[in-house]
Every structure is written in C-alpha cells, then in structure tokens.
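Slide 14.
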Amino acid sequence: MSALNFRIVQSHLAPKKGRTTEERLQEQIEYQEKELCRLRQAALRDPVTGGANMRCLSMAYDWMEEGDPVSLLYIDIDGFRKVNDAIGRDAGDAVLTAVHNEIERCLRWDDVVAREGADRFVAMLPLAIEEDAHAVGERLRASIEKMVFKSREGRFRLTVKVGCSTRHEREDMSPVITRADQAARHSGRNGGNMVCAS
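Slide 15: predicted structure.
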C-alpha cells in the first residue's frame, strides 16, 4: 500500500484515544477489507437495476462444466427509446428495474440475468437445451406483456423480443450471445413481442 493510500484510509477512520498502534493498524486493515469486499460486489452489479452486470454473467458462464448445455436469452424491450423520451430518464430507469425484476421472477433459481446495456438483458440458463430456453423465453415474454406501468402521462405496457441460443460444446459466450441477438433482431423485424431461436 502506498503512503498516499494509507493516509486516505487513515483519514476515514475517526481516531480513538487510548488505543495502541497495533489496535489502530488492525482497525485500518479491517476497514480496508470491508471496502475491498464492497468494491468487488459493486464491480459485479449493474448500477441501474442493482442486478448482475455482464462481467458477473461472464464469470458464471465460465464456471459451467465443459460439455454441459447452456442456453442464453437475449431480451430487448420493444420501442423503449420512445417510452424513455416520453417519461424521462429516472422513470425509465425505474421501468428497467421493474422489467429486470420480472425477468428474474420468471427464471429458474440457478439462472442469471444481466443488463447488457440500455434496454437489453441477457439471461443464462445452465443445463437448458434450446427447447427449455424457448419455453422460459415465452414465459417471461408473456409475463412482461401483462405488466402495467404508470407515469404522469398515463398507463402503458411494454413488450419484449427474445432471442434464444444454445452453446455448441466448448464454445465461448460471445458467439452464443451474437446468435441470440440475431434471433431477437429477427423477432423485431417480424413486429417484436415474440421468441425466436437461432
């Protein structure tokens, strides 16, 4: 640790009289460990939804055993930019959080969903073959379609386009996401609010 870092950490700790140097150092070490833990957690969380981010999803993907099936869902909110422009960014962030929470509710206990950016999410379904992923995608699509959102402009609903893809053998995550994204784009070209497999 540099002297500067030591002084910064030291300044965050209120001095306590009657403590030995060893006790003060131990207190500073404990403080740094807590801060490090907090920063590690923050590095794996999406700042808008509070859920996992893509780094966290990538780590979970890498932990999967070689040869086990893994499917990904690429979930894109239909026409969200217009909604966001109409209701404002803060309300738009609240909508994204609500959609994220609904996706989580529709997934299985060991599935992971991360916000990929803007209005897009990626869900990883361990041990799920393409038919399983399609069924989960259809369940969450139908569930989001039933949600009702309120704003100052009135009530509104959202739909999502969902693309599914299953990894081939030892395939990295990137090409699986690309295929799922392409499947979601195919859904969009056909009007959205549907689930398509790659």
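Speaker note: Residues 1-11 have pLDDT under 50 and may be disordered.
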